[in-house]
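Before surveying the methods themselves, we first show a specimen of the format, giving the amino acid sequence and backbone structure tokens:

:::
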Amino acid sequence: MRKIISISAFLLFSSLTSFLIAQTWSSLGTGMPHPSLSLESFYKHSNGKLDIGVFQLGTSGVTQDTIWNWNGSAFDTVISPLPSGPISVNCAAEFNGSYYVGTDKKLWTWNGASWINPLTNPSISGTTSINCLQVYGSNLYLCYNAAKFQKYDGTTHVNADVQFSTGSQFSCMIQSNGNLYVGGKITFNSVAGYPVAMISGSTATVPFTNTLGFAGTMGVSCMEFYNNELYVGGFFSNGSLAKWNGAAWVIIPGFTSTSCAPNAIKAYHNKLYIAYCDTIFSTDGTNTPTVVGTVPSGSSSFSAMEVYNNRLYLGGAFSSVNGVTNTTNAAMFNDSIVGVTGIRASGTFLSLDKIYPNPFSNDFTVQVEAPSNLSITDAMGRVVYSAKIEKGSSNIGSNLAKGIYFVVLNGRVSSKMVKQ
């Protein structure tokens, strides 16, 4: 007969558990197919793959590929090279059933057999670099390095809003809470100096002040929402990373270089990651940012970050990250509490389960490889939650009060969690 473990033994075993944190950089398979080409962009395709846009060398008819597909373990289908080079694939989007890419030349769409340029109005299409694409409402929005912010309905394209005045520059877009945000160096209704504007429905506004200040000609280069606050990177008067706290812009200490600015920032596993100069930092928004990776200084640069299949992907022009083999121009990062070593009644050790973040403020994620019975006990050993969860990820704990809890999977002590 199996022994019943007492509450005191349960707490003893729990106190002996040792948290294991996976925090590693690794290559994409054996590395990029053409490591001589810098990585410029990531796009999570509806087919479940990660599209990787690169800088294509050569001229028309080159054999080097422009867009590669990564399925999480290997590179497979490749789309035909774009018609002209050298060319940089800066962004991608799916709109009305078609696939679009923005380059440093123009907008292209794939018709199933070849690339075509769908924009027909030369007065506003031009040949300037398209920095970002976003599908919002019934339109595809495009931001240009020059003073152009446009929308395309699949037939015609027009300037998105006349309130964006001459002299504006647009570098990045994101969506949050049903709104579209565009960052850069924006002149709105003839008032200069806005770092970010917002599109809500069809109306453009500037809900953020123009008091951040720019150093030089560059504006916002990247942005991300984290903990309900908007973070922006760029060259500003007193630093290169700032956040909007709901009332004012606040400069984040430690990012003061005048020679480089963050080119990519991304929320991942309850932290904010910043690719800055030759270093990758993480921060919880309160404590001093922590270094999680470096690339050789001097000739390295970052272009993009994306979260895909529970990993953080980094791209740019660098020879390696933390010296890891085959991470030229692309690497993926895993930073999660993946489990603990606990003790069962039989004395054997637990297998590892992925449970994160810890501590948590709202809920936490439990990732299992097979359907499992889960229960949560409080510090007194009382069961406060139980359920059968399916293979994959489940969000747990939103209804728990602040305190200490123990997660039990299939009868095994799996993790001690703290809700703050």
Remarks:
- The chain has two domains: 7-17+342-419, 24-335.
- The chain has a mean pLDDT of 81.
